[in-house]
Design a protein that fits this description.
The protein is an alpha/beta fold and 323 residues long. It has 2 domains: 137 residues, Medium-chain alcohol dehydrogenases, catalytic domain (Quinone Oxidoreductase, Chain A, domain 1, Alpha-Beta Complex); 142 residues, Rossmann fold. 33% of the residues lie in helices and 18% in strands. It is built from 11 helices and 13 strands. The structure holds nicotinamide-adenine-dinucleotide and L-arabinitol. The site of nicotinamide-adenine-dinucleotide has 28 residues, from helix 4, strand 7 and helix 7. This is L-arabinitol 4-dehydrogenase. It comes from Rhypophila decipiens.
Amino acid sequence: MVLGHESAGTVVSVGNAVTSLKAGDRVALEPGYPCRRCSPCLSGHYNLCPDMRFAATPPYDGTLTGFWTAPSDFCYKLPENVSLQEGALIEPLAVAVHITKQGNIQPGQSVVIMGAGPVGLLCGAVAKAYGASKVIAVDIVQSKLDFAKSFTATHTYLSQRVSPEENARNLIEAADLVENGGADCVIDASGAEPSIQASLHIVRMGGTYVQGGMGKDNITFPIMALCLKEVTAKGSFRYGSGDYKLAIDLVASGKVDVKKLVNGVVPFKKAEEAFQKVKEGQVIKILIAGPNEKVEESEGLDTSVDEKKLKENEKASAAGGCC
Ligand SMILES: NC(=O)c1ccc[n+]([C@@H]2O[C@H](COP(=O)([O-])OP(=O)(O)OC[C@H]3O[C@@H](n4cnc5c(N)ncnc54)[C@H](O)[C@@H]3O)[C@@H](O)[C@H]2O)c1
Ligand SMILES: OC[C@H](O)C(O)[C@@H](O)CO
C-alpha cells in the first residue's frame, strides 16, 4: 500500500467544472473524502462518515506519490506567505485544531497535554492561540519536553513511574494548579494507558477531558473520577468543517510556527530512511519531496540511524503505552 496522508502540492490540471483552482496553485491536501450523503456528513460531521476514503488507510492508497487526484473543495489554496512545506503540516495541525476545539478552551484557561509528539505539540500551540494562559506539556522523554518548552509550553512535567494519582498530584503542584483544583482541560495526545488514567485525576471539577491519542482498544479508566467531578469527556477524530481553513489561518497569521517541527527534507528515494529516522525518536518531522521535485540530497539532516537509539525508543514507546 502507498503510504502518506500529510501532504501539499501544486495543481497540475483541474476538471471542467472547477472554478476555485487553476494549474500552478499551491494547495494543502485534505486526505479523506467522505460520501457527503450519510447522516454524519449531512449534519456537518463528515469526519465521522462511515464510508470515508482516507489516504493510506486500507484499502486506499496514500499521497506519497507523484500525482494525486482530489475533489477541489478538499484542496486548500495556500496564501502567498505559506510555503508548500508548511502546507504539508496543515494535516497534523488540523488534527490539533479539532482536538482543541473539542476541549472548548477559553482565554485564560489551563490546559494539560499528555504526550509531546507532533500532535501534542501542535495542540499546545493551538491552545495558546485560543488564549490558554497555561499550557503544560507532559511526556516520559525529557528531550521532548525540552522542545515543547522552546515551542509553546509554559510548563513541562516528566511523568514518573508512580501511580496515576501521584503523578497527577505532583503535576498539579508543579504547575501551580492547586488553587484551580486541577486543569481546566486535559488533552490526551499519547494514547498511553497511564497517561489517560492520570488525566482524569488532573482535570478539575467540571473540567473537560479530550481523548485525541489512539492506543489500545480497551484500557482501565478511572470512571468514578469522571462521575464525581462531572467531567465533560469527548473524543476527537481527524478533522471536520472549517478545521483545515483555521489551521491555514493560524500558520498564515504567524500564530503557529509549524516550520519549527521540521528537521529536514529528503529526496523521494530516501523515504524509507526518513521513516526509520523518525522511529529513532531524535527528530520530529522529516518532509519527503515528491518524485517529481528536484531535491537530490537530504537537506538539513543526516538520515543515518543509530540502531541503539532506535531500539531504546521502541522500548520507551512500548513502556509508555502498556504499563
Ligand atoms: N484523534 C485523531 O484523529 C488522531 C490523529 C492523528 C494522530 N492521533 C494519535 O495521537 C497520538 C499522538 O500522535 P503523535 O504523532 O504526536 O505521536 P507520537 O508517538 O509522536 O507522540 C506520542 C508521545 O506520547 C509520549 N508518551 C508515551 N507514553 C506516555 C505517558 N505515559 N505519558 C505521557 N506521554 C507519553 C511519547 O513519548 C510521545 O512523545 C497518537 O496516539 C496518534 O495515534 C490521533
Ligand atoms: O491524521 C489522521 C490520522 O493519522 C489518521 O486518522 C490515522 O491515524 C487513523 O486512521
